[in-house]
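Throughout our pipeline, every protein is held as a single compact record rather than as scattered files. The record that follows is passed on verbatim for readers who wish to inspect the format:
___
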Amino acid sequence: MRDMIGTKFGKWTIIDYEGQNKKSEQLYSARCDCGTIKIHTVTTLTKGASTQCKSCCMSELNKVDDLIGKTFGAWQVVGKVKNEKRNEWYYTCLCSCGTSKNIAGHQLKSGSSTKCHKCRVKTHGMSYTDTFRIWTGIVRRCLNPNFKNYKYYGGRGIKVADRWLKFENFYADMGDRPVGLQIDRIDNDGNYEPGNCRWVTPQVNNTNRKVSNVKKGN
């Protein structure tokens, strides 16, 4: 068990063995490069579900770059303000239609926000459809560290193809979500991208996950 001590996974370095949890999973305390210490299950580290502490992750995604004056889609950055409660920097943006909104830096830089809600509705008229909701979920779990399932997706390296950061392109490739079907990655370790995604039943989706876990020896 103690042979793992000193092993590095991303920014985490294992510093001690902490026994087992109720599920008989091995627990290790690990130190992030910034000094933060946290106890993880061994699989969380070896599978890459966590590669750094939340503070470091947020620091990378929300670097206070000088974005004032730059444009991202229909947004023009006119200022910045700090959200003290969340310890994040937000940028004050003006949409081409005149709408103002404070937006997190990572949303602008990743392309997940390119225009205000009113303009999105005018552009494709699908903001309240299941297809748009599914696309939004894909982007959130891969790019937003505050999203509850981020650690299973973006946190372990799953990405969204650059082309699919724009909803219209995702829709052109995948079409409308068929009633009762879910989005599924053929390779569960692969990205959300053309050629690796399909619409399937919940049963097929669950089976694909189980087969993937068996192949990985879980």
In short: The two ends are 19 Å apart (CA to CA).
